[in-house]
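Thread: "does anyone have the structure for this chain?"

Original post by V.I.:
We have the sequence but no experimental structure in hand. Need at least a predicted one for the grant figures.
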Amino acid sequence: MSGRAPRPPRGAGTPLPWDPIRDLIGLKERMNRLLESVLRKGDFSTGGLAGWSPPVDLREDRDAFILTTEVPAVRRDDLDIRVEGGIVTLEGRRALEKGARSALRIERPYGSFSRTFHLPHPVDESRVSARLHLGVLEVVLPKSTGARARSIKVQVQ
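Reply from O.Q.:
Generated one for you, tokens below.
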């Protein structure tokens, strides 16, 4: 018996070199999904580990919170936005494209996603609006009237 390592099967190609940064980023994303699932559902179901997590920007101006996220190839019908109190939940699904099973390489994630955000002020739920354009979802969450910043003049005696 020879001391050589077995050869990889034909067509397997050369494996990619190990990239610890890529692995750490993937681990961070999986941990974020797990923690969001636990906070949202209160359990440690493994369903929170499946899928992907779209990047989100959340900013605040005087009258509203604006949430912007990249969800390319996600259809309107596959998006769900819920606002309850000061909590905003985005859920959706990106289906695997036709012919992807025979692809040589798939790097874009597919499947379900869920993101939950706690806002520092109450939102006027009746005026929330959302727009999906070219794979970018923008959700405008107007602050409730009592939550807007006001300037109060204080009399010093």
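V.I.: this helps a lot. The domain at 51-147 is CATH 2.60.40.790 (Immunoglobulin-like).
O.Q.: and The CA atoms of residues 124 and 144 lie 4 Å apart.
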